[in-house]
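[Discussion] Sanity-checking designs against the backbone

I'm trying to build intuition for which residues belong where. Below is a structure token string of 165 positions. I'd appreciate it if someone posts a full sequence so I can compare it with mine line by line.
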């Protein structure tokens, strides 16, 4: 989805960006997961606004109802950088992996060395996953993680600032 959003951003294809943003929001199965992607999207939007770079795409991002999702907002930031799509996806995936390992370090008894070993193993899996993602068509894209949705729904009303970004 990020690769497709990046291409849509680079082409200034606002209807496509809107459709991709809607897809992301509709695939977030719980209020918690949706709030997370919306908050991270809004935070990225604020960062982009504060850079002081004039770009109509920032206003278009801000106008996405009800909010820009994290991957769509990240795609706009990446489009500003001019980095190749493969590099953008590698950075995004590594950031996600690093965040998950950091969350595990805080939530379970896991030492720094174990966290580094997990991150190294995840890092090895990123390049092939990125190559596959770059080649996916719309009808091949999916967001299927039923246990994540079930576990999220079981505690979505529990407030914790620990993992909100």
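Best answer:
Here's mine. Compare freely.
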């Amino acid at each position: 989805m990020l690769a497709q959003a990046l291409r849509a951003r680079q082409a200034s294809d606002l209807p496509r960006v809107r459709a991709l943003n809607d897809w992301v929001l509709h695939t977030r199965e719980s209020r918690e997961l949706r709030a997370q992607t919306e908050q991270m999207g809004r935070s990225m939007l604020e960062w982009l606004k504060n850079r002081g770079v004039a770009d109509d795409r920032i206003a278009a991002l801000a106008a996405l109802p009800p909010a820009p999702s994290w991957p769509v907002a990240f795609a706009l930031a990446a489009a500003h950088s001019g980095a190749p799509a493969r590099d953008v996806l590698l950075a995004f995936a590594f950031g996600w992996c690093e965040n998950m390992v950091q969350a595990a370090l805080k939530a379970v008894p896991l030492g720094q060395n174990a966290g580094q070993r997990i991150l190294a193993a995840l890092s090895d899996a990123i390049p092939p996953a990125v190559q596959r993602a770059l080649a996916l068509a719309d009808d091949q894209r999916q967001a299927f993680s039923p246990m994540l949705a079930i576990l999220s729904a079981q505690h979505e009303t529990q407030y914790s600032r620990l993992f909100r970004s």
